[in-house]
Design brief:
Blueprint (H helix, E strand, L loop, with lengths): L6 H13 L4 E4 L2 H8 L9 E5 L5 E5 L3 H7 L4 E5 L10 H15 L5 E4 L20 H5 L7 E4 L1 H9 L3 H24 L6 H16 L2 H4 L4 E9 L20 E9 L2 E9 L6 H20 L6 H14 L11 E3 L6 E4 L13 E4 L2 E3 L5 E3 L2 E5 L4 E3 L11
């Protein structure tokens, strides 16, 4: 399925560019390229040049040229060589050179915004080897721009509020995560290794999600951290610990559907939970429900952080968890806003937020709950219907 151009999103970005006096955006982070053009880069060398007025230009590696022409929202797609027999430099340098040439043709591009301070980027489709850029790549624009500015904060603000199309894409990612988690729930057995459970989830997402619903999703990938019983902690890699009949197996699960993500934590238990886990789960569910009730337009994100952590302390776990308890989800699994008691920020309608209270025991074991919530005019909507109380049939 080809997504129609998201004019609401692009109009928002252009309005923010005008307000900050930016004439051109140049983006190379795969999540921003996808956000602004609908093309999800294969290797991370591709670059989008977005003028304040007129159509964006998308520079892509030659092997991806036809695909980019088919999926991108711009008709101005220009290939550059992935391998050039006369140029031993990395492909990213060739892409940057074409961007500079384009800006020079347009009179220099005026005030140009680059992703100077974006410290995290979403994965390209060759996800095991992310492409990062260096100071020289950014410095090359000084020769043609009137002024070079950091556009990462602008893009982060624009991405905080989701459009109707983005919400539809996030629903698909959450739906695939739910289907895969149901598959795990129905097939997990005592004695399975953590790695087997992770492979079960990831394989189901890739097999069922790629081509899902007649092609509404072209490519779906999943990533997991799986911890069984005493292996539950923050953070360790999936190992070969066995699934236990009376303790939870926790799955930290990310699903990416054509560049849009879900970020969930779900639990499964093939038998009856031990009493201490029943008690912890009941306590965390109460914390969770209070956090969900707080999610409404105008509510304080700082107060949400405090609410969750204070409530967990009252359960007997002061100082927990050691990880953030609320963040945005969209074209990355973790993106602004991040709730912190020292940062005055408000919940806004159209945000999609991950809420993740957790408590961990010394030496291993514990629980985390996590869903993605769309903030509505009157409260919030959970995007996954897989139950957090995993004792339910």
């Amino acid at each position: 399925m080809g997504w129609e151009i998201d004019t609401v999103k692009l109009d928002r970005v252009h309005t923010m560019m005008a307000a900050e006096g930016l004439d051109t955006l140049v983006v190379r982070s795969p999540d921003n390229v996808c956000y602004l053009t609908n093309y999800w880069p294969m290797k991370g060398y591709d670059v989008a040049v977005v003028p304040l007025d007129g159509e964006p230009t998308l520079f892509v590696m030659e092997p991806q040229y036809e695909e980019a022409q088919r999926t991108a929202w711009t008709s101005d797609v220009r290939p550059f060589p992935f391998y050039d027999p006369d140029d031993p430099r990395p492909p990213a340098v060739r892409a940057q050179g074409r961007c500079v040439e384009l800006l020079r043709e347009r009179g220099g591009g005026g005030r140009v915004g680059l992703e100077h301070s974006q410290g995290t980027q979403g994965a390209d489709r060759m996800v095991g080897e992310p492409t990062v850029f260096w100071s020289g790549w950014f410095d090359g624009f000084d020769a043609v721009a009137t002024e070079v500015l950091d556009a990462a904060p602008l893009l982060a603000r624009a991405r905080t509020i989701k459009t109707a199309q983005e919400i539809e894409r996030l629903r698909l990612a959450n739906e695939l995560a739910t289907l895969a988690m149901e598959h795990v729930r129905d097939n997990i057995r005592p004695g399975m290794r953590e790695s087997e459970v992770g492979a079960m989830f990831e394989g189901h997402v890739h097999a069922v999600g790629t081509g899902y619903q007649g092609g509404r999703v072209a490519l779906a990938r999943a990533f997991t951290l799986v911890w069984a019983g005493p292996g539950i902690r923050t953070f360790t890699a999936t190992g070969d610990r066995p699934v236990l009949a009376d303790e939870p197996t926790l799955l930290e699960i990310w699903v990416c559907a054509d560049g849009y993500w879900s970020d969930l934590t779900k639990n499964a238990c093939p038998g009856t939970l031990r009493p201490e886990y029943d008690e912890l789960l009941d306590g965390l569910l109460g914390v969770y429900e209070a956090a969900i009730a707080h999610l409404r337009p105008g509510a304080s994100l700082a107060e949400l952080d405090t609410l969750i952590r204070d409530a967990i302390a009252e359960l007997g776990y002061p100082g927990q968890p050691s990880h953030p308890v609320c963040h945005g989800v969209g074209a990355r699994a973790h993106e602004p806003p991040f709730a912190h008691r020292a940062v005055p920020a408000e919940v806004q309608e159209g945000m999609v937020l991950a809420i993740e209270p957790a408590a961990y025991w010394p030496g291993g074991g514990g629980l985390r709950l996590e869903d993605n919530f769309l903030v509505t005019a009157t409260g919030s909507e959970r995007l996954s219907n897989y139950p957090d109380d995993f004792r339910e049939p």
